[in-house]
Amino acid sequence: MTTAVSVDPRAEFSIPPAPVLVALIALGPVLYVSGELLGMARNRLDPMIPFTFVMVALAVVSWGLLRRWDLAGRWATVAALAAGVWLGAGWLRVPGFVALLPLPVILATTMIGVGAGAAAALAGTALALAAPRLLLPAVDAATVSVMLAALWGAWGMACATVQPLHRASDWLAEYFDRAQTIMDAARERKAQLEETLQAFAHANRQLALANERTATLRAIAEEAERAKAAFVANVSHELRTPLNIIIGLVDVMVRNPEVYSVVLSPRLRKDLATVQRNCEHLSHMVSDVLDLSRAQAGRLPLQREQVALEGVIAGSVEVVRPLLDKKGLSLRVLTPPDLPSVYCDRTRIEQVILNLTSNAARFTEEGGVEIEAQCVDGEVTVRVTDTGPGIRPEDAQAIFEPFSQGGAARRDRGGTGLGLSISKEFVERHGGRMWLESEPGVGTSFLFTLPVSPPMDHVAPPGHMIREEWIWRESVARATALLPVEDPRKPRLLVLDAAGELRAHLERYSDQVEMVPAAGLADLRGRLQECPAHAVLLNATAPGEAWALAQAAREAAPGTPVIVCAVPPLVFGPVEAGVMDYLIKPVARDDLERVLGRAGRRVRRVLVVDDNPDALGLFQTMLHACEPGMQVAVAANGEEALAMMRAAPPDLALLDVVMPGMDGWQVVRAMEADEALGDVPVVFVSATDPTDRPPQSPSMLATISTGLSIDQLLRCAVTTAAVLLQP
After folding, report:
1. What are the DSSP calls for 591-643, one per residue?
2. C-alpha–C-alpha distance, residues 510 and 512, integer Å
3. pLDDT-based confidence at 434, cuts 50/70/90?
4. What does 394-422 look like in DSSP terms, one character per residue?
5. At what angle do helices 638-647 and 664-673 cross, to 10 degrees?
6. Which residues, other chains included, contact 694 with Cβ-Cβ below 8 Å and sequence gap of 6+?
7. Which of the following CATH numbers is that of domain 492-565: 3.40.50.2300, 2.170.120.20, 1.10.3720.10, 3.30.200.20?
8. What is the layout of strands, in order, in the sheet containing 443-451?
9. pLDDT reported for residue 394
């Protein structure tokens, strides 16, 4: 707590009383000593002793008054000085004291104020006029006039001297008060700032705690996401296996009842068709749940390309047209002739349009369906409109939520309630948006937008290229077509992979990087001369071979960054020698017929390998239905399958991927090592979708022939750490 001190600046410019009092005390002794030295007569020296005592007494009284009342002490000092002057002139008979008459006036003016100086001058005037009668009988009128002139002249000069000082003191007093106010405000602000700093420190501590908790919650959320993905994958596996058996057996019963040497009654055939339809519905729901889970987790790869939406819409219409014709509904497709192609994943967008069109056909009983596409401001908007019952506003708010079907009236039409959720996820993954417009009793319109091309960020502002003398002129030419143009800023990687798998997998997960294949290290330098790349990406067959491969690539690609990874073989498509296809359960009879047709030779003997006895029985039945005279052998594990194949190589092997002991991939590698089994076609059969678990590289090595400076090393370390720590 600071207390403000009040200061009177005028007091700083006034004469202090203390020196005057000291001079009054010393006046008597000085006069006495001077008289002794000058040899004055005794009758002249004797009055000086009582005069000294009187001056000392007046000085002591004035000093006492100064200690208690400053103004009274100042007046007493002026009075004591005036008394000393008049007593010295009259009592001591020293005429020279008359010359000191202006001193009390000057002292009063400078020590107290202008008014006090005038009062002192008036008092001196009265004494000067009375002096001839009281104190100085020898003084004549001329001397009195001189005395009066001296008194008032001294007052005038004192006023002329003091007034500027008083104005300066008033100015200083004003600014002193302002400075005092500002200083008080500064102290207050300082106190507030200290409180604010303390609050910030407390908030910083709380923020640090919140960050720690957020990091913990983030780790928990990531673990929950991993657990969810694992749960969905496991559940899908557990559901697909029995569904595969049910659907397969029911399909054989309905299509080939002679396999069981029975004749199905119409009622039994109808009930079996109902079982088959509901099992297929459940299978579709499992697939939809997996698609939605992958899309929400960002693990759904997009294979983008320039796609003409007219063809996609036409293909979707052809699929739905039988349902529209059956219900007697009209169909209109409105696409302008200059509709630009869209950079998107054809399969996913076709799935979106097919889903919206089939929904419109299912929920419409009268009228028809209209599909319209138009391009506005670099975006293509697709509208699918029906004349169905519409959707109530309260149901429209949750229509895109999983398992929401827009009210009881729409739930009666079937469906899983996941199609719109998946479609919305697909559209948003492309940078678009989806919404609906509906009026109950009139119809519903589902709309979605897609950007014509991916957004392009400016690398550098063009301001440095613009000149004031340039004049803009409107072009008279008009673009007649929108042609797909490759982005010149797209990074380019030269991919070197002996198995040829890495490039295909990378393209599934990124369409923003150009992948250029290279046959081998000998081809590396030539490929770089043909198409310079930002980096060379090599895939080592084993992590231990990464450094040797990097050293060889550094010599073949001087000045180009070399990145070496160790991605294991992919688990989809023909990615291994001898692996012809990958079937996901439930496997339909049509799938088996397609695989048998792709074998390239007459398939007479098939080996089915699965750890589930029911699945073995199902595939035996389905294969006999496809080809009655086919020989079907079964094995319950990988070791038994290898022994049977070595004894009698089959024409085709249906191999389960996930088995206890030796899994499907280990069986394939063992077959490759055996010359007698290397030519046997293998088809993987599994309830696990391979895209759920993309392969991972256990390590990565980055190098360049010129080496890394300390600055580059630091930036690489920070950037790499930031990428690796991202969830």
Report:
1. HHHHHHHHTSS---EEEEE-S-HHHHHHHHHHHHHH-TT-EEEEESSHHHHHH
2. 6
3. very high
4. HHHTTTTSTT--SSHHHHTT---S-HHHH
5. 30
6. 299, 505, 509
7. 3.40.50.2300
8. 330-334, 368-376, 379-386, 443-451, 434-439
9. 80
642 closest CA partner among 663, 622, 621, 624: 663
- Please name the residues in contact with 609: beta carbons below 8 A apart, sequence gap of 6 or more: 634, 635, 636, 637, 638, 640, 641, 653, 654, 655, 656, 659, 664, 667
Reported as a pLDDT band with limits 50, 70 and 90, residue 297 is: low
d(CA 264, CA 667): 41
Alpha helices for 137-265 (secondary structure H):
141-255
- Cα–Cα nearest to 435, from 397, 406, 409: 397
Question: What pTM, to 2 d.p., does this model score?
Answer: 0.49
- Domain 579-692: CATH superfamily is Response regulator (3.40.50.2300)
Fold match, 492-565 / 579-692: yes
Separation of alpha carbons 556 and 559, rounded Å: 10
Q: How many CB atoms lie within 10 A of CB 550?
A: 19
Above 70 in pLDDT, residue 280?
Answer: yes
C-beta separation of 557 from 521 below 8 A:
no
Q: How far apart are CA 188 and CA 557, in angstroms?
A: 68
Tokens of 212: 């720690």
Gap between the Cα atoms of 620 and 631, Å rounded = 9
Specify whether the backbone of 341 is left (phi greater than 0), alpha (psi in -120 to 50) or beta: beta
Strand partners, 307: 342
**Average pLDDT of the chain to the nearest whole number:** 77
| Helices marked H in 366-497 | 393-396, 408-411, 419-429
Which residues have C-beta within 8 Å of that of residue 679, sequence separation ≥ 6? 578
The token pair at 723 is 């990428």
Q: What mean pLDDT do residues 263-280 have?
A: 78
Q: Which helix (H) or strand (E) holds 444?
A: strand 443-451
Count of residues for the chain? 727
Q: For residue 606, what are the β-bridge partners? A: 632, 652
Domain covering 304-451 in this structure, CATH number = 3.30.565.10
Kindly tell me the sign of the dihedral angle through the C-alpha atoms of 9, 13, 16, 19.
Answer: positive
Contacts 24+ apart (CB under 8 A), 63-68: 63/18, 63/21, 66/17, 66/18
Residue 150 identity:
A
**Closest by CA position to 286, among listed 353, 348, 231:** 231
> Nearest CA to 343 among 377, 384, 380, 383?
380
CB 323 within 8 A of CB 358: yes
- What was the pLDDT predicted at 721? 85
Q: How far apart are CA 482 and CA 194, in angstroms?
A: 64
Q: Where are the domains of the chain?
A: 9-173, 304-451, 492-565, 579-692
> Residue 358's CB: how many other CB atoms inside 10 A?
19
